[in-house]
Amino acid sequence: METTTIPSARTVFDVLVPIWPNAGSALAYRNCFELLVSVILSAQCTDEQVNKATPALFAAYPDARSLAGAGRADVEALVRTTGFYRAKAANIIATARMLVDEYDGSVPDTIEELTRLPGVGRKTANLIVSVCYGKPGIVVDTHVLRTARRLGLAPTDDPARSERMLGAALPESMWTAFSYALNRHGKHVCRARKPLCAFCQVASLCPSAEDFLSAACLK
Ligand code: SF4
User: Does residue 89 sit in the same domain as residue 158?
Assistant: First the structure.
């Protein structure tokens, strides 16, 4: 019987991180407040689409204090193109109010504090602590989740479980670079539809490659 070999996270890290050495968030931002708001808006929306909406939003509301006092309808109009705009407008206003009330307008630097903010889950919290504060963070977005699953590194559809599995597989010092490399690899190579297995730099390590390549041949 044929057995499937799962590559080690370290082996995949050694291949992918040098290919995407400076990968970071693709969101446009000038400070932690803007990044936090942008990540909340990026739920179910592309970074490119968020980047088109945020210049007008941050021109009108440049910090937590101004956004905390904003009218819901005005904010809804500004974030409408990011989808789910009513919920997102409510979340960013409520988050801004918590930042003002509890953190003097600043963005906190721990996962525990960040995940208390409305609209902020572990993906967003990990991104903020890693990008803004240089702490280890595993940002499991849809690309990381899919790529880690196909590679057998985290065979799950649950982002929190994937984060735990990836975290256990590598030392903290590698977390941030690895999750961004997986993100870029998933976005550009291990795409949701029609992954580019024939050109993939980790195809020889990947337990899913043969299935995708066979399926492509049968078409
Ligand atoms: S071989 Fe295919 S499925 Fe595996 S990581 Fe590469 S693109 Fe994704």
Answer: no
